[in-house]
Specification:
Protein name: Molecular chaperone DnaJ
Largest sheet: none
Organism: Halomonas colorata
Number of domains: 2
Keywords: Membrane, Transmembrane, Transmembrane helix
Order of helices and strands: HHHHH
Number of strands: 0
Number of helices: 5
Shape: rod-shaped
Strand content: under 5%
Radius of gyration: 35 Å
Distance between the termini: 99 Å
């Protein structure tokens, strides 16, 4: 499917009047016929806009995945909805990184937990021993 908006150099939000002017200026008779058939009837334009939005989403997804058409497709109708490869990290990659970080922290905590419990037990035991010793010395001292 051709991207009629792109080929007519108008935005998908263009008014009917702007579209009619763009179609009238179009030098390609086949493209002009397709555009007239799609944009002349409101229901057809709505259906086309829905398909256009879906194909744009697919083009963005392909770009995010680094998928592009081969050189023999460049400039062809099949390439209308292609985008340049997107080098940004996907949401999935970001979530995997965050979960991996959380798992690393959890594993470190588990590794420290044995030694930490031993130290905490020693400190608490020492504190309780000192408190009992002070209490006994005060009781016996009086």
């Amino acid at each position: 499917m051709r991207d009629l908006y792109q080929r007519l150099s108008v935005s998908p939000q263009a008014s009917d009047e702007e579209l009619q002017q763009a179609v009238a200026r179009c030098p390609n008779s086949a493209l002009r016929q397709d555009a007239e058939a799609v944009f002349a009837v409101e229901k057809r334009r709505k259906d086309y806009d829905q398909a256009h939005a879906t194909l744009n989403d697919i083009g963005q997804l392909r770009a995010r995945l680094g998928l592009t058409h081969g050189a023999h497709w460049q400039g062809d109708v099949a390439n209308d909805f292609s985008r340049l490869p997107d080098q940004t990290a996907s949401r999935h990659d970001e979530l995997v990184d965050r979960v991996s970080h959380a798992v690393g922290l959890h594993n470190r905590w588990r590794g420290l937990r044995g030694a930490g419990l031993l130290i905490a037990t020693f400190i608490i035991g020492t504190g309780v021993g000192i408190a009992v010793g002070i209490a006994l010395s005060q009781t016996l001292g009086t």
